[in-house]
Amino acid sequence: MSSPLIDARALSRRYGAVLALDRFTVSIAPGITGLVGANGAGKSTFIRILLGLVTPSAGEVSVLGHDVRSARANIRALVGYMPEHDCLPPDMSAAEFTTFMGRLSGLPAHAARERSAEVLRHVGLFEERYRPIGSYSTGMAQRVKLAQALVHDPRVLILDEPTNGLDPAGREEMLALIRRTGREFGISVLLSSHLLGELERICDGIVQMDGGRLVRAESIDELTGETGDLLVDVDGDLARFAAALRTRVHTAADVVVQRHQVQVRPLAGASFDHIADAVRDAAVESDVGLLRMERARARLDDLFRDATDQPSVAS
Ligand SMILES: Nc1ncnc2c1ncn2[C@@H]1O[C@H](COP(=O)(O)OP(=O)(O)OP(=O)(O)O)[C@@H](O)[C@H]1O
């Protein structure tokens, strides 16, 4: 087994009477990991501790084996951080700003300029890198924030709500970029988001927090495994097909017509083969083409219905 990316043991942080982290223990594997939890769950506190910006009241935490408290300089070199809120100077160009951030991280001037051009190309801003950031769209500004997090070639990226404020197309682009960044640069990503549909698509694992404690840390495959339900797509009259199927499986399964497909929910003791045969026979009988029949997978939205404070958008 590979060593953990982040290892937190009984991590606590108190703010006066508020226990923001309460003996929070988690081991996060390398890869892309989503951090979820309602407002006040402790996500930002955990992220700030990882960055060395907040000191834990108790407990231990390490990033790639480096103790966060005693190895702050190492942690800064290893970690790139994209904050949620606007933090960009409007009068500087993306090239100037990312070069400046590279210099702050200790890169020599020439290397910082080269690296700035590289990361701006990676995030799709190479052509526009000399324009003032103040003239950028929200999506472009988000990409500058990602570029500055990457400029010093970190091994870990921490992204706080990276798709906040973006329209659906911008969100898609940002998600694709995050995934590509993780894969192409071979770096691990920890990102917080309220949008479970997003996390489901790009993450390898999910860490859920509540009241400063761990609720669960699981891989997406474990979480969204197959359910017993069957999803059937047909080409033709969906209602007629569903009616034909109902008469064939009446005591074995419920047949639910959704927008473009039929979901078949087997009742206790039903045989999957019997239901699959009934689907094929009903398709022939109702003269529709059988396009797809597969086992439904659980969705994060259903599993985490109460985990976030905002409605989740499965786009
Ligand atoms: N600097 C602070 N001073 C006092 N209380 C704080 C401070 N920072 C966080 N808290 C409290 O600690 C708890 C955890 O907050 P935290 O910001 O870590 O949660 P979160 O999961 O990041 O929430 P959000 O999604 O709103 O950012 C909350 O009750 C919050 O009010």
Automatic annotation (TrEMBL):
It comes from the Bacteria. CDD domains: ABC_DR_subfamily_A. One of its GO terms (molecular function) is ATP hydrolysis activity. This is ABC transporter ATP-binding protein. PANTHER family: ABC TRANSPORTER, ATP-BINDING PROTEIN. Belongs to the ABC transporter superfamily. Residues 6-236 form the ABC transporter domain. It comes from Gemmatimonas aurantiaca. Keywords: ATP-binding, Nucleotide-binding, Transport. Gene3D superfamilies: P-loop containing nucleotide triphosphate hydrolases. The keyword Manganese does not apply.
